[in-house]
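pasting input
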Amino acid sequence: MSAALRSFEAQWRARTASGARTADALQPIRDQAMQRFLKLGLPTLRDETWRYTDLRSLAAQSFEAAACETLGEIDPKASLSLVDAERHAATLVMINGCPPANASDTVINGIEISSIKALSKLDPNFWSRFFPAASDADQRRWVLLNTALFDDGLYLKITQQVAAPLVILHVSTGERAHEAAHPRIIIDAAPGSSATIIEHHVAHGDIAPLNNSNTHISLARDAQLEHYRVYSTSAGTTHLDSLDIHQARGSQCRQFTITLGGGLVRSSLEARLNEPGASLDSYSLLVGHADRHVDCVNIVTHAAPDTRSRQTARAIASDVSRVIFNSKVIVNAGAVNSNSQQSCRGLLLSPTAEIDTRPQLEIHADEVKCAHGATTGRLDPDMLFYLLSRGLDRETAQSLLVYAFLADVLTGMSVASARSAIENALISQLPDSQILRNFR
Amino acid sequence: MLVISDLSARVAGKEILNGVNLTVNAGEVHAIMGPNGSGKSTLAQVLAGREDYDVTRGSVLFEGRDLLAMRAEERARAGLFLGFQYPVEIPGVNNVYLLKAALNAKRKAAGEPEVDAYEFLALIRQKMKFMQMSESFLTRGVNEGFSGGEKKRNEVLQMLVLEPKLAILDETDSGLDIDALKVVSTGVNSLRDPKRAVVLVTHYQRLLDYVIPDQVHVLSGGRIVKSGDKSLAQELERRGYDWVMGAQVA
């Protein structure tokens, strides 16, 4: 057993020994998850979705639970601010996964906010909707641990059509090395509701815990959600983030995954289109910078007829960074008239950077329309020559093309302020950022 | 203006140009005709500075300067313009932005101040009207979703804004209907000037009914095999390229 596994088991025992167990409606779910996690262990390079990400150095560490307190005041504006202050519904600050103390008192028109702990006296059947049965699948290994160990989290019930975006600011912070946090968010959208939710991950201070976060999104009939997860943590941070999306009839989800920070970022998305008319647009902007390692795994399951998914991923890697994009579309038997598109393009900006893309299809139904394409390369020489032949200098021409490469994802964002802030942060990580600023 | 001597070039290891000689003086319009694969487009691209084309022999002087020693962007700023046969689409880079950056690059090289944003937009609108282009052009990406004809009009529009000394138009007439051909020809003719020169690369004589050339050259097998006045184009149209190539053998 690895040091990490032993330490997680010790945390689990400590939790079980304390009073936490008796009052927790989630306990049977947690028990099951932890048993499965201990049996399977941490994922290794031999596991299908982990073949590009080596966790051996992480496995050799012992982790303690990260604290809910922080040293000093958190200023949400000190970090990359994604929305105009006056234009958003609220900012909920989660420190190492702990919801704000007043979470359950926060009332926003159309969104009911609760701490998961406060609701945990409810019927366990209520919760089972948001905690899928423990799975052996290797992409879900860290979700098992999150389920077992998260102390509290945030439950958001969207009941109406809410125009202003809601921001969840995840702050990773710590005093000591080798701490781990397990942030948990549940987004429950009622029939016909709509909302925009931005999850923004930042670091505060020099030390950030291992961040093992999970967000579960459940969209009822005809619900609409635009969801962002933006990683802007510091260079040394390890982030293992998973997102589950379950969609009912006629629901629409637009999801943006943006990696602008972190040292090792593993970001997975598992979506299930459970009923006809469900539609998912997933956009991934994966930016490899310095020695960052970005591993993105998308698994979309068409579980009903007449469902639609579109995945647009743009990976860009400079310096000695590495970006991996693995995407899989599964069309279940009977899910006729499913329509899926996967478009993944990679752009290498340095000879020492690496991009690996793997679009996959697994189709068990007839009468489906599934398209996929993946390309990785350097800047298009024909485009470059065209711009040079108009007299643009080389740096400007190259910067323009890099920017244009990312445009497919950026233009899909409907929150203008988020788009603008993300563009700014993005540009600062690209070569010739000054030139790019000039033509925005 | 342009003196090409014994120019030979390779593309992907294959000899495409094989000793081209051509002199174009200021105020002249030259047409370069020839069958498919004769090297017309290669010649145009080599003159514009395409780097993956390998010049193996010869020299090119542009206003007395060694053109082959200049990079593509330097050639453009010095007043050379290539109208592409297949203009590339660049989604995400706005048409107007490109034009403005191109014009400013040229002005900067000439020691002139950058163009005023308001004046620039007025200039673009005027030229767009002249080229009968729709307003949507202003907000679209470079050639993004343009039809073949729109792309060619855009090439000519760029030429009119940049006012080059030497314009090389590579099959700007191909794929145009008769109305578009007239618009494009009017655009090219408007640039005719004692201080400028135009080289039209074309497969058909059709364009030359509207833009009357001073000289016509036939390129075949990577070299110019026949030169004449505009009547040569008409004769080619009547008798076909086999006639010239037959004459060459004889």
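fyi Chain A is about 20% helix and 35% strand.
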